[in-house]
Amino acid sequence: MVNKLIVACLFLIVPMVAALSDPQIDTNPVASGDDVGDLYQRVASSRFVVVGKLVKSLGITKRMTPELVEKMKTSLDAAVGGALYVIHVDSVVCRQGDFQPDSKVSVAQPSTVRIFVPRDEAWFTDGQMKEGLISGRRYLLLLKTPGPEQVAKWTKTYQLQTNSEYYRTEQGSRGVVPMASGNLNELGGGEPLVFDKVSKLCQAVRPPTKSEKLKALKTLTESSDEVLQLEAQKAMAALEGQPINE
Questions:
Q1: CA count, 13 A, side-chain hemisphere, 202
Q2: Residue 97 has pLDDT above 90, yes or no
Q3: How much is the pTM?
Q4: What is the per-residue pLDDT across 142-156, written as a single tens digit (0 to 9) for each?
Q5: Is-contact 183 85, C-beta < 8 A?
Q6: 116 three-state secondary structure
Q7: Backbone phi and psi for residue 191, each to the nearest 5 degrees, phi listed first
Q8: Minimal CA–CA distance to 234: which of 35, 41, 16, 73?
């Protein structure tokens, strides 16, 4: 009876602990808006590139097991699973299929995306910090889909819905770029530089046929923008099936 009472209390308390463990509370690991390196690689590797607003941030607990209940008797932290970020999508800037020679096939575009970040994952991977978003902020997000084995592990371990799709961002915090706040009195005031570059590159590959894509990309290679010249050349090489010069 006592054990059942303990478990019942833990079910009530742990979600609050998980919410307080949300990484947005004590850090803001976002990518610089001036980071325009490797744009083609980063964008083409993303399933979707979207602009959206964080509307909900939730602490996610682990699924209860007898072993976990025992650990929680000494530390509630044992049940903290991670952070779930729910983003309302304002616009889809790019789709991965746009970088294919023929993108005539319609792809369903998300209106809401969910990014799940496990708490027990290393803070840094390949020099990039893991994702962290702040409620109410708008972001440019380079989204990637974890593999089915990873998702199956998540839904088995954490209190996540099995019928929902979960995303991460390309290269962690590098794929999370804060957009302008809308406050013109703040320093800068405009959208980040990387948003302008990504938008133009994505616009060039949006046409449905290879010939149209190449024509639009060629225009970028002839522009005065050195970053877009280089990234457009990479996109053209990929469309032609040629090696990409880094």
A1: 24
A2: yes
A3: 0.84
A4: 999 999 999 999 999
A5: no
A6: strand
A7: -75, 155
A8: 41
